[in-house]
Design a protein that fits this description.
Elements lengths: L6 H33 L10 H24 L3 H28 L6 H24 L4
Helix pairs in contact: 1-2, 1-4, 3-4
């Protein structure tokens, strides 16, 4: 199922994983905003994301941007292993957040496919992040 890739290809896969992750998070927000516009009810945004959540979202987008560029600029082993740690943490945090929405009935049905895709990609990219970290200079 997983390809045997060169170190350069592994780096690209990990970088692309972070890019796709942030794009899917933005897509989820756009879908929820579109749904609110169609229903002419934005009241749900008072609580989620709310003011604090919107600030957190900005931080997440900035962290993604820094990681994406850093993956291309650094070759440090510790940084490779940092990706191995951060990928599943981000994935699990967003998964927990979405499960809360699913349980509370606050999840927009169109967003199910987007967030499911994000988790699947998060899992696959974590596998490749481990391969990239192990392929580093010893």
């Amino acid at each position: 199922m997983f390809i045997d890739a060169t170190e350069s290809k592994l780096r690209s896969i990990v970088s692309m994983g972070w890019i796709i992750s942030v794009l899917l998070q933005i897509a989820d927000l756009v879908v929820r905003l579109s749904n609110a516009a169609i229903l002419d009810d934005f009241s749900g945004f008072l609580f989620d994301p709310g003011e604090v959540g919107l600030k957190a979202f900005a931080v997440v987008v900035c962290v993604h941007a820094i990681l994406i560029l850093s993956i291309q600029l650094t070759d440090a082993i510790w940084f490779r292993w940092l990706n191995v740690i951060l990928l599943p943490i981000f994935c699990l945090l967003f998964m927990a957040h979405q499960i809360f929405h699913l349980i509370s009935g606050g999840m927009v049905p169109a967003a199910h496919m987007i967030v499911t895709t994000q988790y699947l990609i998060g899992f696959v990219v974590t596998v490749y992040a481990v391969k990239w970290a192990r392929a580093g200079k010893k």
